[in-house]
Amino acid sequence: MENKLRRHMDGLVVYKNLNENNFFKSINMPSFLRDFIIQRYSDDEGQLDIEEVKGFIKTYLPKKEEWQEIKNTIIHGYESVKILAKIIVDIDVHTKEVTFELPSFDLKNKETLIEELVWNECGKDMCKGDEIWGILELGYKEPEEKPKRKGRITLESFKKFEPYEVDLEYYKEIREEFTTDEWIDVILGAIDYNANGYNSEEEKLSVMKRLLPFVEKRVNMIELAPKGTGKSYLFGKISRHGWLSTGGKMSRAKMFYDIQKKKEGIIHNNDFVALDEVQTITFSDISEMRSMLKGYLEDGQYSLPTYTGASWAGVILLGNIDKSKMDINKDMFKELPEEFRESALLDRFHGFIEGWKIPRMNDDLKVKGWAVNSEYFCTILHLLRDELDYRIIVDSLIEVPSKSDTRDTEAIKRMTTAYLKLLFPNVRTESDVDLEEFEKYCLDPAIKMRQIIKTQLAIIDSEFLGKDVPDLKVKGME
User: Please, what is the angle between helix 406-423 and helix 374-384, to 10°?
Assistant: First the structure.
């Protein structure tokens, strides 16, 4: 299959060997950057030039503790410095002044400036997201006496980090060359897993449930899993289009909108927001956050007295659970903090991932061989979120019983659409769909994931007793 992958996706695959290339992990490098470097400094047989890699990292990916040295070079050495980093831009409404932050180095807006000439050249690219990765050239603007202005670090040039040409239609066509079993293995390799390390198809598909929020807008999920199954890695390191928040205090200002700073929170400009180690998360104002979350999880909108916001990001709760408590017919939601244990809130999560069906990470599960570039793959998933034809196909294929609960039906259809995009991106119309595969790989798992939510709700709230998910069927199948 690797030969087939290289033949059909030449230039989009890299040789990944996570057991040997552990130095990438030691510097906490996300997968999309790692694969870019591997592809750039590997030969046709996948042999990596380690010395070239070290040189690139030293030149363009400085450590946080090297920031003082960089500042000294810029300010006192009168030299510009180029680095690869993520940047956050802010435009002052009153002065029209453009400033930026570098979160990796704690550089704040008040210390920076993007002058008009530079902004005219690269501003369009820098407005396409909250955090943008790119090659930044940093310089310095001296203090001024008249008018009185402090010295600031300036952006001299910017080149967006977009190392691959992405042709979505070509990706769809390539799917035709692989069987469904092969395509599942292709996806696992793209997210750094060795398909041959799994014992069953069920284990493989359990991992892939985590990708549903990557490929479909506003898929809200809960996962409880034992420690060491790779939750944080997948949601935090694979895609640059998502946000992983680990424990601590979560406020309305941080997640939704900061009224004082007039700044949108992390729910904006991300495909998903994953709240990891959810047992340790606390809300600064429980009633306010519950209210905001309920509104947002329902229709993607929230309201404040002076601001109304909307986003397409999914919300995922990630928590650990002991082996003795892994039972969908027992109260697993008691593992969630009290802030989340409200049925009206939990009902707005579309599906539940049984994380205990995902094996604990081990060396056999780390990819070794030719696999799709993680950055390319996650960019594809990001683009597929805007493709509307898949939901039209799902609506046309699913038969919904009368008087079905709208929230259940929408949850199932949303997840089914995500599965269709993920596993069968090549379908263009209803007639392209293999109905048996659609039922097995798309509809049935979506129903099961939603049913677990309903089962758990019935345990904590008697109002949900006896209210199973509607019996959705594939039209034309017995």
Answer: 140
